[in-house]
Amino acid sequence: MTTTAAVPAQAATTDAMVRVEGVSRTYGSGENAVHALRDVSFTIAPGELVALVGRSGSGKTTLLNCVGGLDRPDAGRVVVDGREVSSLGESGLVELRRDVVSYVFQTFGLVPVLSAAENVGVPLRLRKLPAPVREERVRLLLDLVGLGDHTNQRPGEMSGGQQQRVAIARALANSPRLLIADEPTGQLDTATGQAVMALLRAVVEAEGMTAIISTHDPLMMSLSDRVLHLADGRLVDA
């Protein structure tokens, strides 16, 4: 599979791409307190695909949100690509989400009135890339996820699996160094979900990025380089 590189990626770091150190997160207080994360520590190397597994309520989404800067831990720190995410101000977080981290969620989050190509091109428009560069990048990405013949279709004209492929292509638009995916196959049937998970493995390799993906599916675990198990907010042995 050919690597696409119309948008320059940042220089690779020789250190861990993700470093989580003693992270805890509690919601509420007193008897109503929910300890979503409890002293979680791990690292992810550049280019590694890590599966994050655990029962519902184990803290997976909270952990991903802390890594991606969508939430802040109460204790500990998170470092992504050399940036201490847990201490970034709003402008730093905007830059992180624009230049370093991209997200794929269960809900596809596509703009209904835009075509597949237009949805994928949104991040490139925000970066004010010239139209020819933007259009070539969009074409390459839609080909990469197997939707080169669906560029003009809107989300409502596509299956769930196709919509998730568009969402993946959009997440790759700015050549992120870290892809965070939270149960990306949660709304898909088994066969479609397996195809999307295999695609995620392929595009992570093709784009040369690091990824952390929460999942319940054994196939995604088998496709990953390493599996992290969460239970009651703590990392545990499998």
Brief summary of the model shown:
The chain is α/β, with parallel strands linked by helices. Helix content is 34%, strand content 24%.
Fold and architecture overview:
With 238 residues, the protein is an alpha/beta fold. The protein has helices spanning 60-68, 90-99, 116-126, 131-144, 160-172, 190-207, 218-223, and strands spanning 18-27, 34-44, 49-53, 75-80, 83-84, 101-105, 178-182, 210-214, 226-231, 234-236. The chain has a domain at 14-99 and 216-238: Rossmann fold. It contains 7 helices and 10 strands. The strands form 2 sheets. Strands 6-7-8-3-9-10 form a 6-stranded mixed sheet, sandwiched between helices. Helix 6 (190-207) links the parallel strand 7 (178-182) and strand 8 (210-214). Mean pLDDT is 89; it is low at 1-14.
